[in-house]
Amino acid sequence: MPLKLLPCKSFLTKSRSFLLTTISAADAFRAHSTTTITTAAATAASSSPLLKPPFSISSAAGADLDAALISSSFKEWFKNASTHTVFDRIFEVLAACADSEDSTIDRALSALSLRLDEAFVIQVLHHSPRLSDATNSSSGNNFLLLRLKFFDWAGRQRGFRHTRATYHAIFTLLSRARLMSVIHDWLQSFAATRQQLPNLFFQRRHIRFHEILVVGYAVAGKPEIALQVFGQMRFQGLDLDAFSYHVLLNSLVEESAFDVADTIFSQISSRGLYCPFTSCIRIKSLCKQNRLDEAIAFLRELDVEGPEHRSMTDHTTGIIVNALCKQRRFEEASKLVEELGTARTYDVWIRDLIDAGRTNRALDFLSSKKESEGYTPDVVFYNKLLCQLLRENKLDKVYEVLVEMRDGEIAPDKITMNAALCFFCKAGMVDVALMLYKSRMEFGLSPNSLAFNNLINALCAKDDVDEVYQMLEDSLEHGYFPGKQTFWVLVGVLCRKGKLDKMGKLLDVALQRDPSSMTPAWSHYIAAYITALCNANRPEEGYSVLQKVTTSKNPQNSFVFTSLIRGYILLRRGDMVCKLFVEMQDCGHSPSRSLYKEVICFLCDMGSYEQVLNLLETQLSRQKPSPRICYNYFIYGTGCAEKPELAMEVLRHMKSAGIEPNTDTYIVMLSSYLKSQRISDALNFFYGLCKERGPSNRLYNLLIAGLAKAQKLDQALFFWKEVRGKGLVPSLQCYEELVLSFCSAGDYYNLMKILKDFEDTGRQISPFICNLLLLHTLKNPQLRRTWELVTSSEAEAKSDGVESEAKHSNRLMLGQLISAFSCGIRIKEHLHCLEEVVERYFPVDTFTYNILLRALSMEGRMDYACELFDRISKKGHQPNRYTYDIILHGLCKQGKKEEAEVWKNKMILNGFYPTWYTVELYNSTK
């Protein structure tokens, strides 16, 4: 999800103050200064616990005004850097004629009346074009194509010939674009063409053929071929000039061919070509060999007289600082910067600190050098700092850097503009970001992928679906597809808002863009979309999406199949349910027991018993899960569908297949009879098992609990006595079901027998049983009278036997609990700490609190009920829907409509809704 800034109030105040005071339209600012200052003060003084985003104000009109003023300020700054130079004009012409013939390009560029020379051509090749949005290219390779077109055009102009320097410039651009093969192919073609032409042609053109080949192969990362060409030159009695020697030497160092590089060093020295560039490459070689101490010593020995030597020393110092930082030797690098550093070294030091994630130190260094030496880095380094701060979400620091750039009159480039867009999005000022984005034609802003991602994230946070989709289409037009996190946020918004058709288009674009991008990581997005389609009762479309994206390398997760199966269950499509159930297993997912139950119950509800048996055969043929588990799942599923005949058919099928049923099989079979209220069949099956295998405690527990749920209390009591007579101890769940059933029936006499027997087992009384006793004690005073009667009868009949401590403790606790609340709530003392009375006997939970709240509400003590509600959260318990509903219902009964409305809003804010009975009572309250 997009990160929203929750800044400190001081940051809000100073950022708002700066942005509003830097508006170029001074008259507009003065006209609204009183309003904005008052609003800023009101915002800063807000007592809300949630700090507001920057520049937000109370009124909508004021918010629009602030956004307009801030965006106007940044537009003015951006326009200062948007002045088109002749270089920009050249690239605009090239972009407009990108698909035209050479003759068209010739006419268009000739119309500019350019004076070509070596320096001018190199400037054009190294220029970063600022194109209008209409002619903007989407990638750096497209810019490179425009540069190549200019290079080709310049070489065809009368009076100009390309030099080694211009060739080196174009080769370097191709190398940075990792197009080494292009350079290699071009050089081979160039060499083949040269063989077909007389030497006089080349002499007339003043092109040193071999040197171009050496420079080209060296820049292309092919120093071995460059050395071969160099060898051919030496064989013909030719030699390289100083420029070519150093390009070759640098290439050898870059490729770590240090032995050969030492030989070239010797050649350069013997020919008297040694210069500051040679020293620079020597230091680079030492650094690449991790001989940093030697490099530092060599640097200190250099003669730094003269501006050229001083410049190269700055450069070599930067190389050593960079090498030290790569080895995490920051303290040594810092000392070297302080001792020998100049502005160029400072740039390298700041860049390395940023790369190492030490942005605070970089900011401190920048601040100190700016104050002491007036140092101001180039916009490239400011941009790097901005991007790193944005990644770290240090938005207050981003703001300060933007202020510093603005105050220092540093012309922003497209990276700065994109960083500003990202800042406004992350800082919660999406309106300002949108205004800048929509005005991009005015100052030549070309949003990059990061800016588009942040804009989409910010708009998603506002749930502005139409604006989000428009931004998505703009992003796609520029060739940018949302990143994974942004795509996930986008999918969530589109699915949540029901814009499934737009989501479908987005998925189609993703598939057309790169089908291989549908990796397993995308399955979460696909699952969300398919689930949304199923929830919208469109599982057919969901299945179509599944077929599009599922491949052997990209199997979807089980949640997708589960959603589709449930979607087709709602459509009553048994054929598709079975098909998807099988496809789910083909993709390597094992359906859960609950999914088996859902599918089988659906097929049984449809009356498709044959499909159930066919699905069983299909599952058995897979051998996974094991046949016994598979049969148990189907018996369990048919039992939950209340089809015991079909469950028995599956059991017979299991026995005929030679698979011996286990205890789990008989448990689920007996459960199927009990769930369908076939008590006589359940008893017959139980007796048959007892004769065949002997009774087990698990079967007794299931039978007793099932009879209790079916309100067959006499039979449940009979089997309970039988199991106790055999020395077996029923489970806690069995006792809880018995207690629940006898409490619900009001049979407190037999309830006392159950509780006494439970005490005899020596177990700890569960909170469930205590809650039931508390509830019925408050409801019916008969429970206490029965307890006292049974207790007194036992006391008279008790012999001199010693009662165990555990039994005595349980009985005493239950007796005290029943006595404490037997007369209701109204006459109780200390109602302000009612739950503390209960806590003496057992650990309370939310259900206990709901009982106490209901009791207070029924007695009309809503003041104490509200106090008790406040203590629930403080004690670590989470109120649920019924907790809120009890309070709301009690207030409505007393006719307190205003208080009830407050509680209703609080309830809805926490994600709960009143019951229908409470809603009717609320609506009828005057």
UniProtKB/TrEMBL annotation:
Name of the protein described by the UniProt record: Uncharacterized protein
Q: Which family does it belong to?
A: Belongs to the PPR family. P subfamily.
What NCBIfam families does the annotation carry?
A: PPR
Superkingdom, natural source: Eukaryota
Keyword Nucleus applies: no
InterPro entries reported in the protein's UniProt record: PPR_rpt (IPR002885), TPR-like_helical_dom_sf (IPR011990)
PPR repeats span 378-412, 413-447, 448-482, 557-591, 627-661, 696-730, 845-879, 880-914
Which GO terms fall under molecular function for this chain's record?
mRNA binding
Keyword line: Repeat
